[in-house]
Amino acid sequence: MLTPLDKSILNIIQTRFPVAKRPFAVIAQIIGSEEKTVLTRIKWMKEKGLIRRIGPFFDSKKLGYCGTLVAVDVDPIYIQQVAEAINSYPGVTHNYEREGPFNLWFTLLSPNQEAQDRILHEIQILTGIQRMVNLPATNKIKVNVEFTLK
Amino acid sequence: MDELDRKLVIAMQGDLPLVLEPYAEIAQELGITEDKLFERLKVLTNEGQIRKMGAVLTHRQLGYAANALCAWIVPDRKVETVGQLMAAHEAVTHCYCREKKSNWPYNFYTMIHGKSRAICEGIAQQLSLATGVEQYILLFSTKEWKKTSMRYFQAT
Fold first, then answer.
1. For the CA atoms of chain B, what is the radius of gyration?
2. How far apart are CA B148 and CA A63, in angstroms?
3. Span B40-85, pLDDT tens digits
4. Residue B37 sits at the chain A interface (C-beta within 8 Å)
5. Most buried among A4, A41, B3, B73, by the most CB within 10 A?
6. CA-based nearest distance A30→chain B, Å
7. Residue A144: its pLDDT value, please?
């Protein structure tokens, strides 16, 4: 179970992990704890899988990458085979089976449009794929995955 | 981006070392001083390549079991106001306008995270009422096949 201290730590590090020589000391100072305690709790939450990653959040577009969201309608018999083939591309970061007219949705980041086109063409001809729609973003309004823990 | 910044991205896109002085360790790996690393991080943040320094949590483990991609049909003239209203909601983590296709009329997408399916449905209803956008479809996830952080400047 998460202690109130753990929740305070998570609320801080989700929003702003300190960029400082001793970041865990900075967090400890904000929440009234000890540097080593903060580090120990973060290590524990990482091991338990509550924290997936700590680091910079990069803006893929500003790093020169082009991204898209793609929906495919897959014959259920082939779903695992298709999902695994799609997952094998490193630029596929999220891949979810969903309810609705298209049963598999994935995001793809590529270093350029040509690479994206090539990968989508390879995916489109996988056995079991009946339909595919490519839905590139025209405007990013919000990306902010934060959960306030009470 | 110059060679150093690319190396910085590669060095920092994995996990921050969980040691008392993590940045010193990264700086050493890059062969630069810690101050130089801080300076580059500041520049990249100011220029927008870095959105923030933070932690990604596993939302399922925190009790946010339901996740719905909600696709909306928003008239072009309303996109801006609708976008602001939807983005302001705490449960909406992602909000994008996307191209619509002949066989898929939705042009606006919000990711909604909730502790249950009913909560997500309630939030979508609230957003619909608040914005007057009536045509939408909730696409609940039934299985996660992949969820990773991007590895930039490596094989695609």
1. 20
2. 18
3. 999 999 999 999 999 998 877 777 888 899 999 999 999 999 999 9
4. no
5. A41
6. 16
7. 75
SS3 content of chain B, % helix, strand, coil (to 5): 40, 30, 30
**Which of A1, A11, A22, A53 is the mutation pick for testing B, counting most B CBs within 10 A?**
A53
Residue carrying structure tokens 């991205």: B9
Q: Identity (one letter) of the amino acid at B130?
A: A
**Chain CA centroid to CA B17, Å:** 23
Q: Residue type at B145? A: W
**What does the alpha-carbon distance between residue B34 and residue A85 come to, in Å, rounded to a whole number?**
41
Q: Which tens digits make up the pLDDT trace of B12-50?
A: 998 999 999 999 999 999 999 999 999 999 999 999 999
Locate B10 and state its tokens: 């590669």
> How high is the ipTM of this complex?
0.91
For A110-121, write each residue's pLDDT tens digit.
999 999 999 999
Contact B146 A93 (CB under 8 A): yes
Contact A135 B101 (CB under 8 A): yes
A100 Cβ under 8 Å from any chain B Cβ: yes
Q: What are phi and psi of A4, to 5 degrees?
A: -55, -35
Residue A122 amino acid letter: E
Alpha-carbon torsion, ordered B69, B74, B78, B83, to 10 deg: 10
| Predicted pLDDT at B64 | 80
d(CA A68, CA A86): 14
Mean pLDDT of A11-25: 95
* Nearest residue in A to B150, CA atom: A93
Q: Which residue has the tokens 């995001």?
A: A107
From the CA of A132, how many Å to the nearest CA of chain B? Answer: 10
Q: Is A48 on the interface with B (CB under 8 A)?
A: yes
